[in-house]
Amino acid sequence: MRKPFSFDTQLEAARALVEQLRLEAKVCVEFINEFARQAAAVDDERFLVENGRFQAFVANGASLTNLLAELVFVLDTLTVKISADLDGFRGLTAGERFIGRFSRQRMWRRHSARVRAAPVVERLRDLLVKSEATAGVIAIYRTIAIDFHKLGEHGLIGIVEQRRRLVDKIDIARLRIRELNAKALTTQGRIGLYGSRAEWELMEQERRSLKAEADRVADEEHGMREESQRRERFINLFQVFVDALNSQVGQCNALRRKMLIDTEERLLIYQAQVDTDIPGSKVQISAELFPAIAGPIELFERNMLAPQELEQRKRAADAVFASKFEAFRQEPEEGFSVPIIDTTEISRRLRFRFLRPGFWPKKQ
Predict the structure, then answer these.
(1) Integer CA distances (angstroms), 18 to 52, 133, 138, 139, in order
(2) 357: left (phi > 0), else alpha (psi -120 to 50), else beta?
(3) Predicted pLDDT of residue 122
(4) Per-residue pLDDT tens for 289-304?
(5) Would residue 93 be called left, alpha or beta, if left means φ above 0 and alpha means ψ between -120 and 50 degrees?
(6) What is the mean pLDDT of residues 140-166?
(7) Taking each helix axis from N to C terminus, what angle separates 120-190 and 7-37, rounded to the nearest 10 degrees?
(8) Between the CA atoms of 117, 119, 120 and 126, what dihedral angle is there, to the nearest 10 degrees?
(9) For residues 260 and 293, is the Cβ–Cβ distance under 8 A?
(10) What's the whole-model pTM score?
(11) What angle do the packed helices 44-90 and 307-324 form, to 10 degrees?
(12) Long-range contacts of range 25-28, CB-CB < 8 Å, 24 or more positions apart?
């Protein structure tokens, strides 16, 4: 039975895994560089050891990106829940309706004060804190993956070039073998047909010499071919490492983009929930306090968040996220969608149009 999800526990596990992967990637890149310097000194027994190490890195990297994806998914789910809970505070109470009979201005003032005092505001701030922490971990590992991908790819390119030169030598050796065997065969055909017995003996010596040289080159070619095949096994291993890092960079990019767009969404909810025109209402949310998600917050501070533009970008980010992490794919029910914030019961000062894709209300 799976233990209850703990965001903080999972976040700490992700941080620990990032540091573990940093060390594992460093060891893998060091071995790639060692192999590039002295490939002949690395035997098959060492290959078995390093293969286990490289495969462990790939598996741990996949575990980390899936863990980060789960954190991003949970934050998105919490955003939906907070938005739904906010709707419970949107409607007018009996007391507010009574006041509205005498003064609509006082009614909406009372309503706004009650909504701003709702506990979901603190939940929104907590959500932003969690978003900052998660985005920070994503950014750290993205940098690690990019750096070690460059180092690993550089070393791999050198090793592939070394093997290419070895293959060229093998091709040259094969041509030399054919040439020597052809000469030996021609010499053998002349024995007994031309010249004296003494000349035949000289031709036989030449044939044997040509055959011996062909055998020597063939032995070298065989050794180079075995070395080429041995290097190919290591190259395949290194390629898996580089490809895994490249894939992880792509996954981190998808996570980062979704996180930033989801942060804009949360800030829009906060903006609709709190009167941001009141001095000090934005003090607890600033780019300095949340550097990992500073981009959306800077837009928030400048009142430049646009819900109409966000919907399409969120659809695209969610689609990329789902393609990278199949386990968290959500198929929207056809014919369903609800607004992220129900704006039908609030004053015009707080009203804005933004529909969250995937949840249209059922048609009657």
Answers:
(1) 19, 13, 9, 11
(2) beta
(3) 80
(4) 899 999 998 888 888 8
(5) beta
(6) 96
(7) 20
(8) 120
(9) yes
(10) 0.80
(11) 150
(12) 25/57, 25/144, 25/145, 25/148, 25/152, 25/245, 26/148, 27/53, 28/53, 28/54, 28/57, 28/148, 28/152, 28/241
What residue type is 328 in one-letter code? F
Task: Match 């509205």 to its residue by tokens.
Answer: 100
> Residue 257: CA atoms inside 13 Å, Cβ hemisphere, count?
18
Secondary structure of residue 355 in the 3-state scheme? strand
Q: What is 61-121 written as a DSSP string?
A: HHHHHHHHHHHHHHHHHHHHHHHHHHHHHHSPPHHHHHHHTT-HHHHHHHHHHHHHTSTHH
What are 39-84's pLDDT values in tens digits?
A: 888 888 899 999 999 999 999 999 999 999 999 999 999 998 888 7
Lowest mean pLDDT among 39-48, 205-214, 301-310, 355-364: 355-364
Tokens of 226: 């075995």
Other CB atoms within 10 A of residue 115 CB: 20
